Amino acid sequence: MKKIIALITTVALLSMVVFNFIPSMVADAASTSESNLTYKDVRNGFYFVGYEDVQLEKGKSYKYTVAYEANVDMQATDTVTGQSAKAGLFIPNSSGVELDSNNVTTTQNNVVDVANDGNKVFTHTFEFTVKEDTKADIGTYLGAGSVIPTTPDATIIWKNVSVTNETPAEQPEAPVINAEDKTIEQNETFDALKEVTATDKKDGDLTKSVKVTKNTVDTTKSGEYDVDYSVTNSSKLTTTKSIKVTVTPVETKTNTAPVIDAKDQTIKVGDLFNSLKGVTATDKEDGDLTAKIKVTKDTVNNAEKGVYQVTYTVTDSGNLSASLTIKVTVTQDGKLIVNPSDPTNPADPSNPEVTKTPVEFERASVDPTTTKVNVNKIPKTGDSSMIWVVLAGLGLTTIGISSYRKKANR
């Protein structure tokens, strides 16, 4: 029981020492240009010196050096020893919980130091690479440890504490302009900033900051021209780039007129007539233009015999047109059309749609039962005997008439 009481008394005395040493626990922090270096009392007798909430970027490497010295004094009147400290990377506002190793890859884990007469100056360098974007407290937590209770209140326990960021400063990089040489046709619209971009490692997208410092392009004339670009990032670094723009002359295209394929037709009186049936049109450049054929003239009257006209017209994409006129003959069984009138010159000028009725010859009505034709009695062309008979007859007739006139005169 006496041992237990003695142990409790010892612990109580140690606690009293820690609380009594608060005013002079840490002498000072390192002189540093970093404005966010923290030097604070986390809780009674427990100090943090370092950087809080440091933003660590994925893929980036860092280097920090933490140093501190324990005021170990083994004199009879000022006995100080056994101070404790831990240094490294900590979860923010956790009072000393080590940063998760899933977030960083480090060459050295956090360390814990206990001071004594032969070990009182400590220096640790932490180099690490960040796996994922995260935040950390980087520095050291300092405590009284097992300081001897007889130490005076004014005794400094820790001194010369420093936390130094030794991460190599990144050299600012110039932005990058992305622009390529171009070829355009004469009279084509040219936008110097189209498809031109700019990026910067620090500032990101700088496309909107790109300026055109030179542009000699004349799209009305063929030739090679220069276009210059410039962009500046937040580090005041400027990048320039030049491209060539080639203007080519417009190619002269030969346009061939379309061709209409349609044939003359013959129909019977009363037959239906479709003027577009079987009619096609093709074009060398446009291909099939059948659907664009227009009937510009159609005089066909299928109720009356005659020769009529149908005219077709088609126009291609180059505005070239072709026309073709065909004849449509309307006939009737048993009728023969001879010397049809000119369909382009109708009989009635006031009504061009109606043409003259063709001259017709009816077949002779011959009744074989009542009419006989003696073919043998019809003289043939070139029969000389018949010529002499006729001449002899004419001679006798002349002699007879002369004799009659003489008798009459007597």
Describe this structure in words.
The protein has three domains: 22-165, no CATH class; 176-248, Immunoglobulins (Immunoglobulin-like, Sandwich); 255-361, Sandwich (Immunoglobulin-like). Helix content is 11%, strand content 37%. The protein is built from two helices and 25 strands. The longest helix is centred in the last third of the chain and has 26 residues, at 384-409.
Descriptive key words:
25 strands, rod-shaped, 3 domains, about 400 residues, five-stranded antiparallel β-sheet, disordered N terminus, Immunoglobulin-like, mainly beta, 2 helices, four-stranded antiparallel β-sheet, single chain
Distance between the termini: 217 Å
Strand composition percent: 35-45%
Provide the residue-averaged pLDDT: 77
Tally the helices: what do you get?
2
Query: Which geometry do the CA atoms define?
Result: rod-shaped
Number of strands: 25
Strand order of the largest sheet: 1-2-10-6-8
